[in-house]
Design a protein that fits this description.
The chain has four domains: 331 residues, no CATH class; 261 residues, no CATH class; 102 residues, no CATH class; 171 residues, Trna Endonuclease, Chain: A, domain 1, CATH 3.40.1350. By secondary structure, it is α/β, with parallel strands linked by helices. Helices cover 31% and strands 18% of the residues. The protein has a six-stranded parallel β-sheet with strand order 7-6-8-9-5-10, with helices on both faces. The chain has a six-stranded parallel β-sheet with strand order 11-20-19-12-18-17, sandwiched between helices. A four-stranded mixed β-sheet has the order 31-34-35-36, sandwiched between helices. The chain is built from 27 helices and 36 strands. It is globular and about 95 Å long. InterPro entries: Helicase/UvrB_N, Helicase_Restrict-Modif_Enz, P-loop_NTPase.
């Protein structure tokens, strides 16, 4: 008896996995290994073989698909080099645009963090284009070229392997942004393009990928904060076409449509080419018409679910007698259409790169390769085991033991018991009394009992918060079986003489569409032919008849939800597709669906995150198919992290699919139920409580003239020696920028160092796109030389070299010099001006809307409904301050800074950061003022993200408030920290009076450029 692995999650979803479970002959052993799980080209399968005494002997069986456990050397070697390049965060060798994006995605203090698996996939693609073969790194493209020649007729393909639910669409958005923004910045750089073709296997994914269109209101670039604000404008240059591979089929010319087949054959004669079909070139023009332009720019192709796209290998003489079944023949034909379409695009438009994304980039059975053979052009791998150990997906739980007399675990190998007893064809007459085979009926009841527990939790804890119910999915082999199973689960109509005389309830109470003899107005269970819906070819007549009652019910629901809509113009296919695509989505047509009975298999790309139970009633001859079907239930419901920064495990119970990643003969520990979700939003009728604020990218220094000086008294000593240099030298070597020979003992002249520091200060503090000040450079060089002479100490054996070779050291030195300059006091003072975001210069509380599982407190003086409290059990300090803000008579309105978009840019250690303070407060106006006064409040202590606290506070008060107050267009702002909850009331009252009195709370008065006594100057 093996011990159950109670918590499979070992790693943070946002960091590189550094621990993994060892996989032995019996699956994961429970032994934790340090380091990164190697990429291996197999899918572990748990095959339970019960012994005579009923004990389990679990082994990993790879013989069923011809797979062997082999390391993927290309992926593992490339992964190590990408990790070395990533380390330190400087991303050497890439363009400035690429570096800014990479660092933006990797920032640990983001509200909406990018998962590590998403970063790694994007980083690998970027590394191959911009770094590989240069800067001392291996040219991995030379390893890919022979594979593409052999397998893809020379098409330039790379594959990114990412487990279902890990966010492949986000990666596509990241790569589109990377390519487009670089092309805008450097139009002649042939490595980049702004034209993209997204190819999908079906309509569902095609529609879902609309989030990649920048003009879409819910696009991923904004939703996931993938682009720094100052670069967003460049994304408008992207040209994106989204299609499914069916569009590669050559269409009939308009002239031949409606012509009889024999007439068409007569017109064609003996010619091989069909003159009445469009040419491949015309097809490419049709597919790419949304990309516009002259076509001189090559396109980048993204193949989503790319395992459907391959060039099948001709069967050998020994394999000629091998007969492919209809499904395998169809898969090969689909692959040919897709692959040949890409060849036509390459021929007539030009393809810069094909990027394949798939959880299972393996050859299918019948392709001419061993089933499960990984595409040899795969360059990165974040496997399902990686995703489970990082908590990114649900853990699939399958049966591993039972007390049946035979050796197989019944509900794991369900098809072995019932497959030959299920009908293959539709019956001639209506089936009224079908009963499932005992093993199938037992599986249905068993899963329903498990589902009942999940449903009861939903009723008691989640329903009141508007959460959709859990979802049970059933995958069937054909429309006949699906209809029988559907009616057994959901109920059926009793028809006599073509009239409905009664309604029979289903056998699973929570999933029945008939209650108390009457059909429900909103069906709980739906029947879906996902293959027909995906192809767009329409539903078969008998399927429409089987789902007629449900279609009618959804038409009525559609009318209710969308008054005035012409539902008659909506086809049954469109309606059912909308229902299927919105299962588990709040406020949508499929929101309350509890069960989906699907023909063949649910389409890839179907992404309901509420699936808790899966039943497979079909043959699963490949582990690729197992993973594809199980993947439909692996998306998490909750993405809230616990105290350790990890996700809590979630589970999906799976029957009938011989697939397991963490096998055990003990029941897994029940997951913690997800916490209720609270909707936090801006409330109607509270417009008077609205708070507006500026959005800054940084600060610009204005000087009355070029007479600037260094105040040595405020400049600290800068030490170069063993306490600082060794770690940075090592870091520099890790990221590769300093992969110079350490034996090089170059001596840098003091003037050379002063020039480098002066240039850095000039570029970072003075020069902007519309305001260049080159005349300041000589003075800055003089200041930097003075600083080097008087404030730099060098230990024996060290030199000024780190200030030239180590970016971090140079940045810190420039910060110290700048700090001494801006603190110069005299008649000629520097004035700070805000650098407003050009595309989004102002935010407000008006559009706040999000869901949270954190503790919340309702508000009265805020346009936003709740204050969200940070911390696992809430934050009593924040709650106490919110209470004081509600009671203080001078406070007109306030808001907790959560999902508000308000941040304070600051620089620390040479890197740009964003500081997100806790509260914004608007004060009541005195009668003689025509502008508003605002207070930024930081609650220090309790659970705070790590960071340079002093730098944040100093920037907030002496840079942000100063610059905004100097602008005069956003009212007057002040900043205060609350550090003692016993003094909150008094400290708040004091801060408010200081702000009313224009005291230094609004920023260093020596840096402000208006008369403190002129309180009416500047409006809000």
């Amino acid at each position: 008896m093996t011990e159950a692995i109670e918590n499979p999650i070992l790693n943070s979803p946002y960091e590189q996995p550094d621990r993994y479970y060892e996989i032995g002959p019996q699956g994961p052993t429970g032994e934790i290994q340090e380091g990164r799980r190697p990429s291996e080209s197999f899918i572990p399968i748990a095959v339970s073989k019960k012994g005579k005494q009923g004990t389990d002997q679990i082994e990993l069986d790879f013989d069923t698909t011809g797979e062997r456990r082999e390391r993927n050397t290309l992926i593992n070697d490339l992964r190590r080099e990408v990790a070395r390049w990533r380390r330190g965060g400087d991303y050497s060798g890439v363009t400035p645009i690429s570096r800014k994006l990479l660092q933006h995605w990797a920032a640990p203090d983001r509200d909406n963090r990018v998962l590590f698996c998403q970063r790694e996939a994007a980083e690998t693609a970027i590394f191959l284009v911009e770094v590989a073969g240069r800067h001392g790194y291996t040219d991995w493209r030379r390893r890919l070229e022979p594979e593409n020649d052999a397998h893809n007729s020379g098409l330039p393909r790379i594959a990114l392997k990412m487990a279902t639910g890990t966010g492949k669409t986000v990666v596509m958005a990241m790569l589109i942004a990377w390519q487009t923004l670089n092309k805008v910045q450097s139009p002649r750089d042939a490595r980049f393009t702004s034209r993209f073709l997204m190819v999908t296997p079906g309509i569902t994914i095609r529609d879902r990928l609309r989030v990649l269109l920048p003009e879409e209101p819910e696009n991923y670039y904004d939703q996931r904060d993938l682009i720094p604000a100052d670069l967003k404008g460049g994304l408008a240059h992207a040209r994106i076409a989204i299609t499914n591979y069916h569009a590669f089929q050559l269409k009939d010319a308009k002239e031949i449509q409606g012509i009889a087949r024999n007439t068409r054959l007569l017109l064609k004669g003996d010619r091989k080419e069909d003159a009445f079909k469009e040419t491949p070139k015309a097809m490419v023009s049709r597919v790419l018409r949304d990309l516009g332009g002259s076509g001189k720019q090559q396109v980048i192709v993204f193949n989503d679910e790319a395992h459907h796209c391959y060039q099948d290998k001709p069967l050998s003489a020994a394999e000629q007698g091998t007969k492919l079944d209809k499904e395998e023949q169809a898969a090969n034909e689909e692959a040919r259409v897709w692959f040949r379409g890409l060849q036509a695009v390459a021929r007539h438009a030009g393809i810069k790169q094909i990027i394949d994304l798939s959880a299972t980039p393996f050859y299918l059975k019948g392709s001419g390769y061993n089933e499960g053979y990984i595409f040899p052009w795969t360059v990165s791998d974040f496997s399902l085991m990686d995703a489970i150990e990082s908590g990114i997906v649900k853990v699939p739980r399958t049966p591993v033991d039972d007390d049946a007399r035979h050796k197989l675990v019944t509900y794991l190998r369900l098809w072995d018991f019932v497959g030959d007893k299920l009908p293959k064809r539709a019956p001639k007459n209506t089936v009224k009394d079908w009963l499932p085979e005992p093993e199938l009926e037992g599986a249905l009841h068993s899963l329903h009992r498990s589902y009942t527990k999940a449903f009861q939790h939903w009723e008691t804890s989640l329903q009141q918060h508007g959460e959709p119910p859990p979802v049970f999915i059933v995958v069937c082999p054909n429309t006949t079986v699906s209809r029988l199973v559907y009616e057994w689960i959901a109920g059926r109509e009793a028809v006599e003489d073509d009239e409905v005389v009664a309604h029979t309830p289903g056998n699973l109470k929570l999933l029945s569409n008939v209650v108390d003899g009457k059909p429900l107005a909103r069906p709980r269970t739906i029947l879906i032919d996902s293959r027909a819906l995906e192809s767009g070819e329409g539903l078969k007549k008998d399927f429409k008849q089987a789902a007629a009652a449900e279609i009618a019910a959804f038409q009525a629901e559609y009318r209710r939800r969308y008054p005035g809509a012409d539902v008659e113009k909506i086809t049954e296919e469109e309606l059912l597709r909308e229902v299927m695509n919105t299962v588990g989505k709040k406020g949508r047509l499929g929101e309350q669906v509890r069960c989906v009975v699907s023909v063949s298999m649910l389409t890839e790309g179907w992404d309901a995150n509420t699936v808790t139970h899966i039943l497979g009633i079909r043959p699963f001859r490949s582990q690729l198919l197992c993973e594809q079907v199980v993947g439909r239930g692996l998306r998490r419901r909750s993405y809230a992290v616990n105290d350790e920064g990890f996700f809590e495990p979630e589970y999906a119970n799976v029957y009938g699919i011989p697939f397991q990643f963490i096998p055990s003969d003990k029941p897994a520990k029940e997951p913690l139920p997800p916490k209720p979700v609270q909707e936090v939003r801006a409330l109607e009728g509270r417009d008077d409580l609205r708070i507006t604020f500026p959005k800054l990218d940084g600060y610009r220094a204005e000087l009355p003239d070029e007479e600037i000086n260094l105040d040595l008294d405020v400049a600290p000593v800068f030490e170069i020696g063993p306490d600082t240099v060794p770690s940075w030298v090592e870091l520099q070597g890790v990221v590769g920028a300093g992969e110079h020979d350490t034996s090089e003992e170059r001596t840098y002249r003091r003037q050379e160092v002063a020039f480098a520091l002066a240039k850095r200060i000039l570029d970072s503090q003075f020069n902007t796109a519309d305001d260049k000040r080159p005349w300041l450079f000589p003075k800055l060089v003089e200041i930097c030389r003075e600083w080097l002479d008087h404030r730099v100490t060098i230990d024996k054996g060290y030199s000024l070299g780190p200030l030239m070779t180590i970016t971090q050291a140079q940045a810190e030195a420039a910060e110290q010099i700048w700090g001494a300059i801006i603190r110069f006091i005299g008649d000629r003072r520097i004035r700070l001006r805000p650098m407003l975001n050009r595309f989004d210069p102002q935010g407000s509380t008006e559009g706040v809307y999000f869901h949270t599982r954190k503790a919340t407190v309702p508000t009265e003086k805020s346009e936003v409904s709740h204050v969200t409290l940070d911390g696992v059990l809430g934050n009593t300090w924040e709650q106490l301050l919110a209470s004081e803000l509600e009671l203080n008579p001078n406070v007109a309105a306030y808001v907790k800074n959560d999902h508000l978009g308000f941040s304070i840019p600051y620089v620390h250690g040479g890197r740009s950061h964003s500081y997100v303070p806790d509260f914004l407060v608007r004060l009541h106006r005195p009668g003689d003022e025509d502008f508003d006064r605002y207070l930024i409040v930081e609650v220090s202590g309790s659970q705070k993200s790590p960071g340079p606290t002093r730098a944040k506070a100093a920037t907030a008060r002496d840079s942000w408030c100063v610059a905004v107050n100097n602008h005069r267009g956003f009212g007057r702002w002040g900043y205060v920290e609350m550090t003692d909850p016993l003094l909150f009331k008094a400290r708040l009252a004091e801060a408010i009076q200081l702000l009313y009195g224009d005291q230094p709370i609004i920023g260093d008065p020596d840096l402000l450029d208006y008369d403190m006594q002129m309180r009416s100057a500047g409006g809000a």
